[in-house]
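User: I'm new to structure prediction. If I give you an amino acid sequence, what do you actually give back? Let's try with this one:
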Amino acid sequence: MANLNAAGEGKRRVKLYALNDERNWEDQGTGHIYWIIDINQQHYVSLVVKSETDGSILLDSKILLSSNYQKQQDTLIVWSDVDKRDLALSFQ
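Assistant: Good question. You get back a string of structure tokens that encode the predicted 3D arrangement of the chain. For your 92 residues, that looks like this:
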């Protein structure tokens, strides 16, 4: 059974970026960040961003211990996901 939890007391607003083939950051949308904990099957945690405009899923990325998550400045986290996409979250 997967549990969907808000990240913190209230909703945390973030902007999602993905690095394109030209090595430019593209805005993927703004939404609220959550995590999903799967306690029955694979014992994993996923980072989820839901669009603030229509509730669609902008990001569903497994959190892996082998991933290198980097904090840049005070409000930016950058990493590469399982699909080798370079992603960034800007916390607002």
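You can read the tokens as a compact description of the fold. Here is one thing that stands out. Residues 31 and 65 are 25 Å apart (CA to CA).
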